[in-house]
Amino acid sequence: MKNPHLAKRYWKNVTTPMGSSDELVHSYDDSIDLSLGDPDVTTDFRIIDAAFRDARNGATHYTDHAGEVPLRQAIIDMYTEDYSHTRSLTECMITTSGCHAMWLVLEAILDDGDEVIVNEPYFTPYIQQIGLARGVPVVVAAREEDDWQIVPERIERAITERTKAIIINTPGNPTGVCYTRQTMEAIARIAVDHDLLVIADDIYTAYSYSAPFIPMMTLPNMAERTVTISSFSKDYAMTGWRIGYIVAPDYIIQTCKDINENNVFTAPSVSQRAAFHALRLRNEIQPSLVAEYRARSEHCYERVCETPHMSTSGPRGAIYLWVNISETGLSDVEVAARIFREAHVLTLPGTAFGPHCGNYLRLAVCVGIGQITEAFNRIQQMTIFSA
Q1: For a tag on the chain, would you pick the N or C end, based on fewer CB atoms within 10 A?
Q2: Which superkingdom is the protein from (predicted)?
Q3: What is the reported pTM?
Q4: What CATH architecture applies to the domain 45-283?
């Protein structure tokens, strides 16, 4: 939209399918939403009640600029207890969501024209987040035939003298891929050899079904060159609390803190208290949450496998299925539109996650098994999914 009252850099902006899905879902009274990754499970009441008590007792003020000390210490302790990895308090900062953390990090590390390597399919906001920090995204394709693992040779071919960082996301959105240790070690080697940072977008760490999650920063020589971004949104069903964090070398944390003084100053105090209690209760809360989403993923996988002209890999991680619909002979946008129009089921077309993803749809298993069943009962009545 060209308007003199708008910044010119936004004149060519187009609302993404992810950005418009919340409006579409209200088009039909019986819509089933498989589009957004917003866990439908309400935050555990023990977290809510404890945060409410803290608010009643006065936790309604600004916190330490980097985040309240008890929460940062709990995060540091979690890495020590769960991954035998030690960090200092000055290497952790609390943010207002994982997306806010990503923006702060990119703003802190990028000069104009610096390049950031992003693997396609990618989380939709990455490209614009890099652009907002005046960087240049360099997209490297992952492929289904490689099981969506990063191929090191493709990364190395994309590196130039302006490359500053590589973004990785495992378990991944939208594919659900969990990078193997071999893949992680290959990325680490590339980062060390080329003196690059790795930005690890660790949003779905609890949802690693086939093997334990490996934080990039725990690999040899990677603590000093890994910036870990995480969030309580998915691992604790706390999307609405908007709370995340950064773990990184202290010079990056200090710069992010200085930038944030001019942005949101501090993350919400009540949300920080909720995050503290979530960590404290993680071994009680997460197992049932993960079991629920794994069961949904497996059920959705079974229904995809029995649907003509659909295929996907078995659930490995995250809360999504990345479904190949190329056998329909239609584009992802056409298929998604027809599924919504004919079956009243909202999905996201693959090109929301990269321009070369036109053979795919992303399905988020953020509704119960009953609704997933109903969604596929409707989809399988469509002519494009008939045998």
Answers
A1: C
A2: Bacteria
A3: 0.95
A4: 3-Layer(aba) Sandwich (3.40)
